[in-house]
Every structure is written in C-alpha cells, then in structure tokens.
Design a protein that fits this description.
46% of the residues lie in helices and 15% in strands. With 235 residues, it is α/β, with parallel strands linked by helices. Strands 3-2-1-4-5-6-7 form a seven-stranded parallel β-sheet, sandwiched between helices. Strand 5, helix 5 and strand 6 form a beta-alpha-beta unit.
C-alpha cells in the first residue's frame, strides 16, 4: 500500500542522527524519497540503510552546509534528477559553548551564526525554485525555545535561533498568499539527542522524549497540512 507521501521528494538536513535521522526515517516509511545531508557520510549511510530495510528509498548527500557552493551544487543535482522538491526540513544546527555573553568566543560565535542562520538562508535561496515547482511544498524549520525566551549562558545559540525564527517567519509571510508553499517552525522541546546531552550533561535521558516522538508529529504536520506561519512546541 502506498504511503501518504508517495512520490514526494524530501530533503532533511542534519540527518545523520537525532531528530534529523528520525524525521528522515519517518518520511521514508511514508513513501517519500528522502535526500539525507550531514557533514559525514558514516551516519548518513546507517540512516539510509534503515530506510531501505523499512521498504523506503533514500539518497545520501554528504556536504558542509557552511559552504554555499556545496548547497548550490546539491540544488542543481536535485533539479537535474527530480526537477522539484516537495519537503524541506531544516534541522542542522550548532550549539556551541554555553557561556556568559561577555565571554563568548568571537570565532565560535561567527561559526554558530554561519550554520544556524546564513546556511539556512542559503538553503532557502537554493531550493526556493524547486519548492515552487512542487505546487504544494512544505518547509519545516527546527528551532528552540531559547530563540523566543532568552536564557542565561545561551546567548549565542539563542540569538542564532531568534534570527532563524525571524528568517523563516518572514519567508512564511512572503508566501502566505501564493498557496504553493507553507512554512512552519517546530520547537521539539526536551528531546533525547546528543545536543541535549551536551547542554545538560547531568540530565537523565530516560526522562526525555525520543526523537521518534518528534518525528511522528512532524510527519503528521506534513501529511495533514498546515497554514504557512504555523508554530508549535512538541509535547
């Protein structure tokens, strides 16, 4: 039996582990052909194998999202093979060091903004035309509560997510009346990921929701549809 996303092409960034991997696998099980991106191929290959074992299809595309030329080449490759993109999940992000604002390292601060903001803008620019060819494209950006509610020692990451939210919010409004592209921002909440463990090393991961729970909600949004500009926090 065909899945609800049968015939659709999806691109998931940061897909080698955590929420990105779980979302990619959920999309694959639902019939979408999933293009997996992350910096290293090993994790991507494992996710690809799990998708194939579940009866889905996937393509891995290792690349550094901080390199705009790599993003452009990926967009060209997808355009040449599939001519459209139905789903774009912007999940890749960098936490950086949690520190007081006055102690933030300038080089690391720039790296955080390069990946968490500039690369996201580059992805939107590169794939906008392909999304519009879908006719009913959906873009979901994965954010954090610290992008809306400042928290001590989270200045760099929080500022980057605030900028990310504003960027996606503007893109959502720009497409509100087109009827061809819907944009949503999803805060997964406390989830059992490597980034969460890095931020809260003393926390018991057994008390947190799994990435699969977040993926389940994202899949529901993608299958049921949503109005552009939709924002939510998962459980």
């Amino acid at each position: 039996m065909a899945g609800p996303l049968e015939g659709q092409i999806a691109l998931v960034t940061g897909a080698s582990r955590g929420i990105g991997a779980a979302v990619a696998e959920a999309l694959g099980k639902s019939g979408a052909h999933v293009i997996l991106t992350a910096r290293t191929s090993a994790g991507l290959e494992e996710v690809e194998e799990r998708i194939h074992k579940a009866g889905g299809t996937a393509t891995i595309a290792p690349l550094d999202l901080t390199d705009p030329e790599s993003i452009g080449r990926l967009a060209q490759a997808i355009a040449g093979r599939w001519e459209k993109l139905d789903i774009l999940v912007l999940n890749a992000a960098m936490l950086g060091t949690l520190a007081p604002v006055q102690h933030l390292d300038a080089k690391e601060f720039a790296q955080i903004f390069t990946l968490n903001v500039s690369a996201q803008a580059a992805l939107i620019a590169a794939f906008d035309a392909l999304l519009r060819k879908s006719g009913q494209a959906r873009l979901i950006g994965i954010t954090s509560s610290v992008g809306a509610s400042p928290r001590a020692f989270w200045g760099a990451y929080g500022a980057s997510k605030a900028a990310f939210n504003t960027l996606l919010g503007a893109y959502a409004e720009e497409n509100r009346n087109t009827g061809r592209l819907a944009v949503a921002i999803v805060d997964p909440g406390a989830t059992r990921t490597k980034m969460r463990a890095q931020a809260y090393p003393g926390e018991d991961p057994a008390l947190l929701k799994s990435p699969d729970e977040v993926a389940k909600r994202i899949l529901q949004l993608l299958t049921d549809g949503f109005e552009t500009g939709h924002k939510e926090r998962v459980g």
